[in-house]
């Protein structure tokens, strides 16, 4: 188990489950305005009941004539088809009942199983129409700070949120023409983020500022007008990364009640990665927006504990979204904001909550801290990651991931004794984890190498065995320059003496 893989799994698992669950519910709701269960199966069911009465005599005659094996097999197959149709109808009716909280279901009437009718046929035009209106839900990928009841009221139908503003620019005009249009206002200097006001607010109306909480009605489409984002009450805080940069930049230029079109290049939305499975890479988006309200950011100390947990979890899921995209700085920022929300303190700095609530808050804090440590490691902030891992162990001393990270970081810093103790504790909790075994063996090698280096440097020279002492080097044989100089002086002296004596004679 490599630590990187473990970290990625931790940060992505819960967010994927959240998005998958929400998408499943959204698909059920999105089909209700198009095909209701009783609209699809009411006519075939009535036809089945009529044929049960009119074809009784024909069935008796056919039963006498078709006593062979082929006839019986055909009959069984038709019975199975009818049973499958009824089962499918009941399932769809139950799904519609769960989604709309309705009690009545016209498809619960009994149908005899000996009717011989074919399943209802669907026209190709109906299939194409349903595909054209289908959309991929994405409200689970943005942060919502409303109450639970209000969150369940989100609009997931295929109908437009702005039926009075179905203008050509929203429906058919190409994005290239909109980027070059003269009647659009540039929000950014690079002309890649543009806005057009459809309905202005009254004069002298204030605009929101960074750090405030806003409520926005929005729907977004790709260039082929596929709906990829839609929410009738999207609540987020400007500047905290709860939504993409395009929405944050645009909303601070809007006034309360204003309705506008927003055209955003991919670098202001989802960039080169896109957003699976609905938004491809480098895809610009066209939004239709209305600023419903804005207010100051709520203080976490003024919120009840369940609201703090819900908002903190949403912040952590947003951090997981950034972590999957390898945007580790944004992920770390989201985790820190989640930790600020996950507190049990009050205005007087006292904790006066029940033990169960405090344990639940601590569990969410442990998840955020572990994810924050993983992001800090990706950013190379090793001291901060070590401090965060110690915070995890303060809340949960048996947390294996925090023990492993702490032991590894201490080993890299050269604090071998504490690292060995920490890794042994992690190994005792999870003996089958290969990553802990590998880090322990690496730590043992580091300790052995350092001890050998220290012992070799501490040995005195006289303790070395004589047999290992290298023999003295012999001087190379040759005539010394001093000897040559002396001989030269003697020769010159004798020459001068002979010359003087000769001169005297």
TrEMBL record:
Pfam families attached here?
Answer: FKBP_C, TPR_19
> What biological-process GO terms show up in the record?
negative regulation of apoptotic process
This enzyme catalyses: [protein]-peptidylproline (omega=180) = [protein]-peptidylproline (omega=0)
Q: Which UniProt keywords apply?
A: Isomerase, Membrane, Rotamase, TPR repeat, Transmembrane, Transmembrane helix
Which Enzyme Commission numbers does its entry carry? 5.2.1.8
Q: Name one GO cellular component term.
A: mitochondrial envelope
Chain positions of TPR repeats: 366-399, 400-433
Q: Which SMART domains match?
A: TPR
Q: Where is the PPIase FKBP-type domain?
A: 211-295
Biased composition (Polar residues) is annotated at 95-122
Q: Where are the transmembrane segments?
A: 483-503
Is Protein biosynthesis there in the keyword field? no
Q: Where is this region: Disordered?
A: 51-82, 95-134, 449-469
GO molecular function list: peptidyl-prolyl cis-trans isomerase activity; protein folding chaperone
Give the matching PANTHER family: PEPTIDYLPROLYL ISOMERASE
Q: What is this protein called?
A: peptidylprolyl isomerase
Gene responsible for this protein: LOC122140416
């Amino acid at each position: 188990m490599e630590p990187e893989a473990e970290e990625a799994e931790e940060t992505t698992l819960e967010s994927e489950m959240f998005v998958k669950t929400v998408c499943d519910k959204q698909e059920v709701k999105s089909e209700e305005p198009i095909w209701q269960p009783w609209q699809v199966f009411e006519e075939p069911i009535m036809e089945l009941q009529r044929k049960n009465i009119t074809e009784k005599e024909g069935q008796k005659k056919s039963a006498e004539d078709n006593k062979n094996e082929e006839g019986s097999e055909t009959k069984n197959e038709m019975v199975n088809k009818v049973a499958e149709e009824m089962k499918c109808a009941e399932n769809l009716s139950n799904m519609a009942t769960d989604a709309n909280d309705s009690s009545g279901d016209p498809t619960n009437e009994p149908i005899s199983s000996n009717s011989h009718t074919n399943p209802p046929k669907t026209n190709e035009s109906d299939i194409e129409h349903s595909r054209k209106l289908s959309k991929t839900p994405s409200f689970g990928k943005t942060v919502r700070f409303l109450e639970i009841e209000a969150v369940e009221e989100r609009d997931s139908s295929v109908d437009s949120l702005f039926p009075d503003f179905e203008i050509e620019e929203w429906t058919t005009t190409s994005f290239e023409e909109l980027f070059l249009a003269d009647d659009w206002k540039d929000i950014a200097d690079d002309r890649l983020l543009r806005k057009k006001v459809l309905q202005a607010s009254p004069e002298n109306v204030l605009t929101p500022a960074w750090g405030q909480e806003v409520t926005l009605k929005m729907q977004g489409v790709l260039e082929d007008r596929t709906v990829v984002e839609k929410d009738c009450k999207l609540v987020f805080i400007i500047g905290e990364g709860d939504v993409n940069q395009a929405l944050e930049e645009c909303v601070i230029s809007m006034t309360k009640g204003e309705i506008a079109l927003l055209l955003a290049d991919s670098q202001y939305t989802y960039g080169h990665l896109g957003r699976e499975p609905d938004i491809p890479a480098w895809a610009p988006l066209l939004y239709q927006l209305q600023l419903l309200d804005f207010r100051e950011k709520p203080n976490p100390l003024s919120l009840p504990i369940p609201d703090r947990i819900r908002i903190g979890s949403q912040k952590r899921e947003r951090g997981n979204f950034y972590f999957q995209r390898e945007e580790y700085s944004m992920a770390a920022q989201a985790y820190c904001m989640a930790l600020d929300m996950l507190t049990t303190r009050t205005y007087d700095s006292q904790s006066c909550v029940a033990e169960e609530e405090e344990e639940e808050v601590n569990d969410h804090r442990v998840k955020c801290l572990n994810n924050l440590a993983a992001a800090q490691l990706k950013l190379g902030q090793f001291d901060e990651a070590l401090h965060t891992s110690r915070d995890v162990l303060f809340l949960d001393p048996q947390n294996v991931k925090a023990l492993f990270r702490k032991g590894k970081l201490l080993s890299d810093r050269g604090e071998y004794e504490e690292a060995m103790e920490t890794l042994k504790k992690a190994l005792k909790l999870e003996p089958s984890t290969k990553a802990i075994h590998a880090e322990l063996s690496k730590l043992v090698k580091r300790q052995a190498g350092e001890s050998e280096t220290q012992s070799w440097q501490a040995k005195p020279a006289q303790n070395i065995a004589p047999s290992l002492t290298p023999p003295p080097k012999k001087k190379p044989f040759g005539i010394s320059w001093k000897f040559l100089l002396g001989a030269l002086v003697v020769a010159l002296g004798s020459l001068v003496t002979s010359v003087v004596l000769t001169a005297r004679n």
